[in-house]
Specification:
heterodimer, A: about 230 residues, mainly alpha, about 0% strand, B: about 240 residues, alpha/beta, Rossmann fold, six-stranded mixed β-sheet, four-stranded antiparallel β-sheet, 8 helices, 10 strands, about 35% helix, globular
Chain lengths: ~230, ~240
Amino acid sequence: MQDKVVRDRTRAKIEKQIVLPLSKAVQISLESLRMRFGRSLVTMSGIVLAIAFLMSIWTSNAIIEELRDSGDSRIELLLQTKGIETSAEDVKAARSKQTWLISLSLLVCGVGITNAMLMAVTERYREIGTMKCLGALDSFVAKLFLLESSFQGATASIAGTVIGFLLSLVASWISFRGAVIQYFPGIKILTFAGLAVLIGSVLSIVGAVFPAIKAAKMQPVEAMRIER
Amino acid sequence: MAEQSIVRTEDLKKIYKMGSTEVEALSGVNLEIQAGEYLSIMGPSGSGKTTLFNMVGGLDKPTSGKVYIDEVDVAQLDAYELAWLRCRKIGYIFQTFNLLPVMTALENVTLPMTFAGMSSDEARDKGVALLTRVGLGDRILHKPSELSGGQQQRVAVARAMANDPAIILADEPTGNLDLTTGREIIELLRELNEESGVTIISATHDMKMLSVSDRVVWIRDGKIERIERREDIEISVGTIRGKDE
């Protein structure tokens, strides 16, 4: 042992690990999504469906409301023949039923996100443990999963909003033809679209909070676990 | 050369609770590891080998007793200091390689440097140099799935060296490798140990490890059974080495 070169390592005091900039976490989580694209698509499809449902209902409501308020007798007749409620009470009853359906679909979607992220955390226990052995802080690991989920959520919400809007537009077009364009509630629908994307994104982040905490609390020794 | 201890344990005990029964995995281990040493911890499974190894590496906390790394009591460190210790002082090598599958070989090696706050250009240069050192200079942009087991473990060795650690902890580094590849990894570790003076601590039951270790600590039933120096081992395991070659 005497012949070995022992580098003079100054006994520096143990320091505190630095907190990495968010851009690093963004970079890693984007790469992780890209590599597991197929898996992300499955997770995202749930959000796309829920947001598309939300957006299509909002769009058709907005269109019908605009038509109803148009005061055009020809359109009013059309609405009646299509069996669409025009009295205030009927509209109210239909609305509450819709709200119930929307809340339910969003709830199911949120549970789906939590489930998918929990699976992702369990699947990657060794990766998480390894990262911690390499010096990752708890907060960094949590950020990775929150970012991953929010990227999925934002992308899926935008896709869902576009799909929901288009489907609803086509359905309205079939029923009312040119009147839809004539009385198109552009600003209202734009507001709804923004709201739908926001709801989808927030839902994804909220759904990922528990899995992210679970990942952050994982012990580095998990990296050593061997499943045979 | 004045011998200085890089890791020291004081009457280390670890008790696991399995339901109502208590299992004593370690019952009072005193071990001093010198800087620059190549130390192997050997023992059958269930001997407390892994427990001791994890504690020496700051991955597990003792029930009683103390672990000092560079004369610092590990139990006194907060989460940020522990992360710093794992990032800068210790390099880990695993039996299952544990490269991050979403990253290239180079990205795997530079990740600990990123955690240490190094700029990307600097990290890239150093990463390339380390990968060249372990003989993978032409594979830096390959993903782990495109590398053989031996190559993956080489990347892991380069990653462990990323922040010039004082200690490399290798948990059964040859456990998932064939005989020849395993020997290459052992040789590589030995070379790095001689070149840079990094202390190597490995938990293993690979007899090939014995011939390169400065000391071998045999663990049985949570206690150190005996500590052998290399000079003594080479005679006693001569036959085993003969079989390998």
